[in-house]
Amino acid sequence: MDKHEKGHRYWKRNIRYVIVLLLIWFLASYGASIIFKDELNEIQIAGFKLGFWFAQQGSMYVFVILIFVYVWLMNRLDKEFGYDK
């Protein structure tokens, strides 16, 4: 595999990771707190409705977790393609 093809495959996988993680973040923030709010509000955590919890705090927690997942995925990808040096 030449250098150009290697770089192309690396960025293609990187973009795929970003799209999937952004989709998860969208579902957690917009989906859970707006679209599925009524269904989630039937569940309570510590006295708070789950839809409200996602709107206020849950989407932020998901976002921070996704940052760590992205770093982990990119470290693996860097090692796989030899960009970790």
Question: Could you explain how this protein is built, in words?
Answer:
This protein is mostly helical. It has one domain. Helix content is 81%, strand content 5%. The protein has 3 helices and 2 strands, in the order ααββα. Strands 1-2 form a two-stranded antiparallel ribbon. The longest helix has 33 residues. The radius of gyration is 18 Å and the shape is elongated. The protein starts with a helix and ends with a helix. The mean pLDDT is 91.
* Total strands: 2
Global shape: elongated
Determine Rg (CA atoms, Å). Answer: 18 Å
**Overall mean pLDDT:** 91
Oligomer: single chain
Distance between the amino and carboxyl termini: 19 Å
Share in helix: over 70%
Structural class based on helices, strands and sheet pairing: mainly alpha
Q: How do the strands of the widest beta sheet line up side by side?
A: 1-2
Overall number of domains = 1
Q: Strand-residue fraction? A: under 5%
Low-confidence stretches: none
Q: How many helices in DSSP terms?
A: 3
Order of helices and strands: HHEEH
Largest sheet: 2 strands, antiparallel
